[in-house]
Specification:
Elements: E1 3-8, E2 12-17, H1 22-31, E3 39-42, H2 48-59, E4 63-66, E5 72-75, E6 83-84, H3 86-89, H4 98-106, E7 108-112, H5 125-133, E8 137-141, E9 144-148, E10 156-158, H6 164-175, E11 180-184, H7 190-201, E12 205-207, E13 213-217, E14 225-228, H8 233-246, E15 248-253, H9 261-269, E16 273-277, E17 280-285, E18 294-295, H10 307-315, E19 320-324, H11 333-340, E20 344-348, E21 351-355, E22 364-366, H12 370-382, E23 385-390, H13 393-398, H14 402-408, E24 412-416
Parallel strand pairs: 2-15, 3-14, 6-7, 10-11, 18-19, 22-23
Antiparallel strand pairs: 1-23, 1-24, 3-5, 4-5, 7-9, 8-9, 11-13, 12-13, 15-17, 16-17, 19-21, 20-21
Helix pairs in contact: 1-2, 1-7, 4-6, 5-6, 6-7, 8-10, 8-12, 10-12, 11-12
Bound molecules: uridine-diphosphate-N-acetylglucosamine.
């Protein structure tokens, strides 16, 4: 099992290019299921989750080809079996994103229930409720969601809570439905907007993506399109938080600063000097960060996917911070590992109180989920001496070329077999 060895305690200095967004690439790959014509994608990151999604789509008969660089073409001329098996869904919850497109295109789908995961229960009731409202017959048998219908019908769907993949699933389903669908209380995440842009290029009629009310007028069929996946705002935020915690000066190119308001605001509050020019973000940090309070919320609030990285930053900050996790019920597992490095954190329900300490000390720690691992990497960059992070397959799911990029920023990092 791969481990990452970090020798910390030194500032970062260098430039890296931001990759395409995992959370935009995955739903956009699923959009290929909606059309018999090819979808040509650019800026697709090379990640484990992207490989898993390719495998899942290929198994249904989609022709998936990777270019030399970040290109990918997908063609779902015909779909053999609209089935997403447990073996693949359990390794990646985002597999649920095939459901809406499959029902819309094939009139039926069988998708394994994702089940629980390390960060909480994560049910899919809102996805199912929306499909039922659009006329699908949905049942859950032997751990599988079965959905079928002649043709989906447009409906007004009020989501009980804000769900990102739920919004994306129903938006995709609605593109081929008969009539108009309105999604109320929709997720406003930039990745939802990126998917809508790609769907529109394929011929879909979508209005209001990026607001909490999305209107989709169904069409009979969608065509092919080319689309470049948006930059990864979580990867961007992770490197920025790393430099704010470890100190130094870094430059990120190919970024989308507009998608990072909440993160950049908190980094400035922590004392970082940040300049944005076009798609470039420069961050400079001298001395220890100031403690910043965090409350996670749906976009444009502070992203839950950035919470662990900011907890790592707060462990070495001047002052005490309060971190409240309001999206997932069990997303503080990194706190215990951070304590192994000398952090002072106490947890009460969904709130963590972090008392900043002068320094962390390297130790062996265990990655528990993707973003928790990113928090441990930041702590390892700050900690004096050697930190070994076990189970880094979590990081490979979501960070392209992690060691290469950290090395380009001047970090001392090595993968151990
Ligand atoms: C997506 C992101 C993930 C991010 C999360 C929140 C992808 C592939 N993943 O996950 O990185 O952490 O958004 O920003 O884009 N919920 C229900 N019923 C549902 C659906 C969700 O109760 O039918 C709950 C969840 O348990 C959670 C909250 O709603 O408490 C938000 O979850 P959701 O936005 O759906 O997360 P994902 O789309 O799975």
């Amino acid at each position: 099992m791969n481990r990452l060895l970090l020798t910390g305690g030194r500032p970062l200095d260098g430039t890296v290019h931001v990759s395409g967004a995992k959370n935009a690439a995955l739903p956009i790959m699923c959009a290929a299921l909606l059309s018999a014509k090819p979808l040509l994608l650019g800026n697709v990151p090379r990640l484990m989750d992207v490989a898993t999604m390719s495998k899942l789509l290929a198994q249904m008969g989609v022709l998936v080809e990777r270019g030399d660089e970040s290109g990918m073409s997908l063609c779902a001329e015909s779909i053999g079996d609209p089935i997403a098996p447990y073996e693949l869904v359990r390794t990646m919850r985002a597999s649920i994103l095939v459901l809406g497109a499959l029902v819309a295109r094939c009139g039926r789908a069988k998708v394994s229930l994702p089940g629980g995961c390390a960060i909480g229960q994560r049910p899919v009731d809102q996805h199912l409720k929306g499909l039922v409202a659009m006329g699908a017959r949905v049942s859950v048998e032997h751990g599988y969601i079965h959905a079928e219908t002649e043709r989906l019908k447009g409906a007004r769907i009020v989501m009980d809570l804000v769900t990102v993949t739920g919004t994306e699933n129903l938006m995709m389903a609605a593109t081929l439905a008969e009539g108009t669908t309105v999604l109320e209380n929709a997720a406003r995440e930039p990745e939802v907007v990126d998917l809508a842009i790609c769907l529109a290029a394929m011929g879909a009629r979508i209005d209001g993506a990026g607001t909490d009310r999305i209107r989709i007028d169904g069409v009979a069929r969608l065509g092919g399109a080319s689309h470049a996946v948006m930059p990864d705002r979580i990867e961007t935020g992770t490197y920025l938080a790393a430099a704010a915690a470890a100190g130094g000066r870094i430059k990120l190119t190919g970024a989308a600063p507009d998608s990072l308001d909440a993160t950049l605001g908190k980094l400035r509050e922590a004392g970082a000097r940040i300049d944005c020019a076009g798609d470039t973000i420069t961050l400079e940090m001298e001395g220890r960060p100031k403690a910043v309070d965090i409350r996670t919320a749906p976009y444009p609030g502070f992203a839950t996917d950035m919470q662990a990285q900011f907890m790592a930053l707060d462990t070495v900050a001047i002052g005490t911070s309060v971190i409240t996790e309001s999206i997932f019920e069990n997303r503080f597992m990194h706190a215990l590992e951070l304590q192994r490095l000398g952090a002072d954190i106490s947890i009460q329900g969904n709130t963590a109180v972090v008392r900043g300490v002068d320094r962390l000390q390297g130790a062996a720690v265990m990655a528990t989920d993707l973003r928790a691992s990113a928090g441990l990497v930041i702590a390892g960059l700050v900690a004096e001496g050697e930190t070994v992070i076990d189970r880094i397959y979590h990081l490979d799911r979501g960070y392209e070329a992690l060691e290469k990029k950290l090395t380009a920023l001047g970090a001392k990092v090595r993968r151990l077999a």
